Predict the structure.
Amino acid sequence: MLTSTRGAPGTSRNVSWVKRLGLVAGLVIGLGCAVALAVIAIPLAQYPGPDAPAEAATLETAAVARTSDLPSTSALSTTWAPGRTVRTTLDGSVVTAVMTQPRTLLGCTAVAFEVDAVPVRALCGPRPFWRPITGTTTGPDVDELIAFLHQLRYLATTTPSSSELTSAIRAWQRHDGHEVTGVVKPASLLWVESPVVPEAVPLSVGDLAGTNVTVLTTSPAVTAARLSGPPPSGAGPHIVNIEGDAGTAPVGPRGVVTDLSGLAAGFAAAIRPDGTLPTQVPVVVRLATPVNVISVPGSSIVTGADGTTCVQAETAANRSPIAVTVVGMDADNVLVQGKLAVGDPILTSPPTDATC
């Protein structure tokens, strides 16, 4: 009996389909293995190994040099004197103009008012102006007049000769419209101890001239002020201004403000609405003359064991500290002075073991 070797119908088609399915599965598995090997192999190839040197700190070029007056915040401890009334003798007929205004600074040499269209200026000094003065008069009131004429630039010196003083008096009288006599009468000037900020000005246009006329009343005024905060940054003369006011004043030894006239308006504004006088007035202290500085990232500053400060400069050959002195802040950077030159590359994040 003969047996047929031909398969049942459809058998060959089933075998072909299985082979194709196996081939596809093999390709998918192979591709997956290749991707996995790449993911593992690439980081391993980039890993430097346990003996490789640590990554170098970031280098950055120091900022371009600039100037700064090194401002810093502080406060003034103040001593106040009560307000007072300023009276004077008006020599003439009638008040024709009033320049003095409440809450507005009346400075030394400023025109306070006019009598018969002739200006009457403020004269500052510790003693009242009580007698006629000529070029040959001597005394502390003469010194006040000399300072007055010097501020107005009628005198080139504060130690004039008699003839120079006489000439200056006559020049001032001629300019302001006074009778040119070479003799200064007390009524031709308004004496005040220092620049004042009037609380009220009772004097009005049309008031008749006379004796003991009330010109103005003053707010309490600061008679002494001294920095109560830390010493200001930088060496050299400093000036101070009250926050929110443009007036400035020089700061002398031990933080004492040597001339309060420039701060008069700021002090008046610092008086609280209920009349309370502040014993501490916020101020900004700055150098009178700006200095050259270099701005560097704060993270670049290294502090040595002895308190010295430096930055780390690095070249292809070596790393070396450059001594600097921190003198101020500038936004997110630090202002320094020292041997650091503009363009020197420095480490912005020096190693923790860096020293000066």
